[in-house]
Design a protein that fits this description.
Layout: E1 2-5, E2 12-15, H1 18-30, E3 32-36, E4 48-53, E5 59-64, E6 69-74, H2 76-91, E7 97-100, E8 116-119
Parallel strand pairs: 2-8, 4-6
Antiparallel strand pairs: 1-2, 3-4, 5-6, 7-8
Helix pairs in contact: 1-2
InterPro entries: Imm32
Pfam family, one: Imm32
Length: 128
């Protein structure tokens, strides 16, 4: 798993194998977990992802700058939707990516969530 945070836009780019995306989805659904990313010489690389279950409302995706971890926290209903989206990207066989971006009135993301791009394990743009 590789995590890179864009210093200008604050967007986090996640590249992972299908197995890693499914492990992340399981942690998100369960509301707890710590996943370590592959070490990278990239100065904007993050160390991993921590998942926490909280009362919500919604899911908050934010950065712990001291530890350089992406933190995903929130209520079980919002986490279930995010977990399903992650599993969908893990099983997508035609490539592509998923943008997880907050906007006012978003049905499961909380205000203040960082934008997250989840890349397909098959890379690139969809082939269909």
């Amino acid at each position: 798993m590789r995590l890179v945070c864009d210093p200008v836009y604050g967007e986090v780019d996640l590249t992972a194998s299908a197995e890693e995306l499914n492990r992340l989805a399981d942690a998100v659904a369960e509301g707890k977990g710590l996943l370590i990313s592959t070490p990278s010489p990239d100065t904007d690389a993050l160390a991993g992802i921590e998942v926490k279950g909280t009362a919500g409302p919604g899911v908050l995706v934010h950065l712990d700058p001291e530890r350089q971890f992406l933190v995903i926290s929130g209520d079980s209903a919002g986490r279930a939707v995010l977990a399903d989206n992650l599993r969908g990207m893990a099983s997508a066989e035609d490539g592509g990516h998923l943008h997880i971006d907050y906007f006012p009135g978003h049905f499961y993301l909380a205000e203040g969530s960082l934008p997250l791009v989840v890349n397909s394990p098959h890379g690139g743009m969809p082939t269909r």
